Each structure stands twice: as structure tokens, then as C-alpha cells.
# Entry
Amino acid sequence: MALDGCGLFCKYTLFIFNLIFALLGFAFLGLGLWLRFSESTRGIFQIEDLNSSAFVIAVTVLIALGSVMLIVVVFGDYGACNEKRCALQVFSVLLTILAIAEIAIGVVAYSSKEEVGPRIVEFYSSLYALYLNSGDPVIGATLTFIHKMLHCCGVTGVVVLELVKHTCPKADGFWEQIKQPNCPAEILGAFNSNAPLVMGIFVGTGVLLIIALICSTTLSRKIRQSLSSPQYIILTHSTSVMANPHPSQCEFVSSSYPDQDPVFFTPLSMANIPIIALVCTIILLKQTKRTQQEITAYYTTVY
# Structure
């Protein structure tokens, strides 16, 4: 079906949005499944005392969020590429739920930063303890990244006593070879100072989802308009090649004008048929009268 410029723009915008959304969904789901079923982290889910820990909650959120994102992408791509209004409506509902959730999480995280900060510290402590027990190189690389980003060293900060000192950043001076900032305090301070930025990230993501929702709603409306708009019928001398096999209500072909251009008619309702029949009758009578005049003039000239 034909879409105008606005409809095509929304269609390709949704396609690009769903492509990026699919990549993020696969990343979240893959990371969550790896943390859930990896040999080094699987045991933590079997300990009842750790079922409510920040690590378990974070992994569960990653798996759930990745799954929901992929479901949203399926409906969005199917509705946009095949121009299906039903799939676009489901896609719009899911986007609305995600946008509200994103904005709500950002506001709650900012308003409850005194509670969220310790949860993040607990998450770091879980990774720290897990690395000491398993020695997983991936977790070690994660700790190294955190230590270098925050310029801290372990849970104590005492380099000579720290069990993961090989993951600590390089000392800037003599004193940092002995003592560096401990990571729990640095994480808590960084979160408290960057809480507005965290809220902005969540709210910004929600705004992007709202933009995609507007595009989805606009595309659905354009599809409905293209389905309900009148279709044009082209009448030519070769009526047998027309798509509609039913005979026309007023079918007349003049042989006097073989080079006549095709005439465009719009579909007619039942209420307009008597009026059109009257018009066709008048045209036919005029044509018949003209033909009789031509015959009379011909015989007058001959005889």
C-alpha cells in the first residue's frame, strides 16, 4: 500500500530504532544468562541467603529486560515492515509500558539515592567475594575496569594487604603504593554525586521510547488512511483488461475517437447510481442524435 512521506519516514525510523533496540536486548539477555548459568556464578543462586542480594536482583532484571526488549522488537519490526496495524498497536502498548517504567525508575532512583547507593556497593562486594572464591578472569576484568574507572583498590584500599591488588590501578605517587581509596566509599560517593545524571539517563531513554511511540502511532494512522482512501478506476477502450471483472454500470465506448485519452472515475456508492444512470442516458441520447445527423448528411450528399 502507498504511504506518503511522513508515513515512510516513521516506517524507516521504527526500523532503525528496532535494530538498535534488538542489539541492546541481545546484549542484556546474553549477559544475564551468562551470569545466571556460568560455572563461576551459578552457585550464588543456589544459596538461599543470597536470593535477595543485589547481584541476584541485577541478573534477574537483565534477563527480564532483555526478553521484554526482544519481544517489543518482534512486534515493532513485523508491524513496520509488513504495515500491520494490529502488530503496531501491540508495539505501542509495550512501548508505553517501557517508557513509563524507565521514567519511574529514574525518578525513584534519584529520590531514593540513599538506599540505591548501598545496593550498588553490595553488588560490588558480591563480585569481589565471587572473584576471591572462583578466580574467574571475566569477573577479574570487571573488577579491574571498576578500579581503574573510580581509581580505587578493593574493599580496604590498603594495597599491601589487598587480596586483589593486581586489579588495582597504577599508583600515582609513593603514598598510593601503600594506601589507595577503597571502592565501597568511592562507589557511594560517585553515585550520590552523579544521581542527577543517572536519572537523566533513565528519563532520556524514556523520551526516546516516547518518540518511537509517536512514530508507531503515526504510521498506524497513515496505514489506516491508505486503506480507507478511494481507489481510482481507469476506463479505456479495452474494458476486458480491467481488474474488476464485473460490468460497469455505464459502459460506453465511442468509435468516433480512437485516440481518446482514458477517463478517471472514482468508485460510486449505491446512492449515486440513479444520478449516474441519468447522466449516461443523456450522453447516449446526444451521441445517438449526432450519429443520426451524420447519416442524414451522408445520404443528402450522395443523393
The chain has two domains: 5-227, 251-302.
